Amino acid sequence: MRLTDHEKAMLNGDLGEITQQAMQALYDLSIFYDVEEFVEIVGCHDDSTVYAGEAQVAFAEMLAEKGAKFAVPTTTNACACDMNLWNRQKMDVETMSATRRIEAAHIKMGAVPIWSCAPYHVGTAPSFGQQVACAESNVICYYNSVIGARTNRYAGPLELLCAITARAPYFGLHVPENRRAQGLVKLGKDIKEEYFTDESIYNLVSYAFGSIVKDRVWALEGVPSKGMTNEILKQFSATASSSGGIALFHMIGITPEAQTLEQAFGGNKPRETVEIHLEDLEKAESLLTNPEVDELDAIVLGCPHASYNECVMVRDLFDKRKVASNTNFWLITPRSVVDRLKDSGVYEELIRSGVQVYSDGCILEYRCNNLGTRTMMSNSGKFDTYCFSMRGIQPVFGSMRECIESAVAGRVVKEAKPWRK
Ligand code: F3S
Asked: Is residue 197 pLDDT above 90, yes or no?
């Protein structure tokens, strides 16, 4: 490998034992993958934050005790629960104790403790073209696709080593040529532009797109730019990385590396083109919904964590109405957004409507068995993809408005849509 003087010094142990060990592990990995050099990174989003067993906690504590420090700004992903309201969430003491140990170790290494899977909503995201190391699939997909920052799909412990050394093996999506689209998904003529005023269609297009693309880099043509928001692109990123293994997509005319078809493909022609139609959206929704569910144990918004604007939209959609007594409404948002909601008075209005506002945790890590939750509705293609396989919960997918109407009614409320028969 070609190494800079600084990288050689890290490998030689001149910057301490733990930096040497971190660099050695990255070096060995690079040799395994025939990588010829490292790239300097400017930030890291750290996903070894959900308790997955004693080995994970012990690893973080070992790093911290040996004096490891993050050399780049490193934000923490969501953990298993709300660290202050864990008791109300019926989280077990063992997981909560382990979460506190993870918190202590990561803070000792210098992490920025945002505990959120939406770091882009709290002002900590990288800029276009910056090299970073991230885990958490929606963050990877959003950073690569929506911002144009560059990261591979890292696994929890590995990106900690990148953060300690400020280096990543220079391959995959770190390299500009590998970021070009290879194939193209086009929206069929039966998917009309006016359908995109309903934000839930993006999740369904994304689910269909991810199912076709898998883990390749492809482009999507036909999505209107009118009305596009960061929140829509967040949902698109989360769902595409769940129905497929997408780490980077290009939305023609919308995402920064795909302002034109030519730019997305680097002047090449698509190797393959696939059209999706209304029936693909219908199929996507059928895979995200159990049609037999009527009564709902809970409705959840905030997968990925909700932005301030989304919380305000929830307040507006409730319009002073209340969550029905037979269900629960959970809204999960970063802790800094909760502070803003409290400052603006929106928090109080949400509470008056019966909304339970939580921070820090990933909804898929909630102890839903302890809460007696068997059926849930959400506006998240990602949550609805995983909730049955991971938690045994029967999902219902709907728009944000349908989620709120269902919460008020205490049972599933759905509107007529062009892709629903
Ligand atoms: Fe975030 Fe968990 Fe959803 S990490 S994206 S709330 S599955």
From this structure: yes
Identify the H or E element spanning 184: strand 183-187
Say how far apart CA 397 and CA 379 lie, in whole Å.
6
Percent of the chain surpassing pLDDT 90: 98
Token duo for residue 39: 């790239």
Pocket lining: 10 vs ligand 1, CB cutoff 6 Å = no
Whole-number Å distance, alpha carbon 226 to ligand 1 midpoint, is 27
Structure tokens at 4: 């800079």
Please give the number of the atom of ligand 1 that sits closest to the Cα of 361: 6
Q: Is the dihedral of CA 79, 366, 364, 349 positive or negative?
A: negative
* Torsion sign (Cα): 145, 248, 111, 89: positive
Nearest residue to 248 (alpha-carbon basis) of 159, 170, 181: 181
Q: Do the Cβ atoms of 164 and 63 come closer than 8 Å?
A: yes
Kindly report the average pLDDT of the chain as a whole number: 97
Residues 6+ apart with CB under 8 A from 345: none
The predicted structure's pLDDT at residue 156: 79
The finding on whether 138 has its CB within 6 A of some atom of ligand 1 is yes
Judge whether 380 and 118 are in contact, CB under 8 Å. no
Helix, strand, coil percentages, rounded to 5, for the chain: 45, 15, 40
**Helix, strand, or coil (residue 132):** strand
State which of 48, 49, 76, 138 you would mutate to test the pocket of ligand 1, scoring each by most atoms of that ligand within 8 A of its C-beta. Answer: 138
First to last CA, the chain: 58
User: Can you say whether residue 236 is alpha, beta or left, with left for phi > 0 and alpha for psi between -120 and 50 degrees?
Assistant: alpha
Any atom of ligand 1 within 6 Å of the Cβ of 303: yes
Supply the pLDDT for residue 369.
83
**Distance from residue 117's CA to the centre of ligand 1 (Å):** 6
Digit-coded pLDDT (tens) for 46-98: 999 999 999 999 999 999 999 999 999 999 999 999 999 999 999 999 999 99
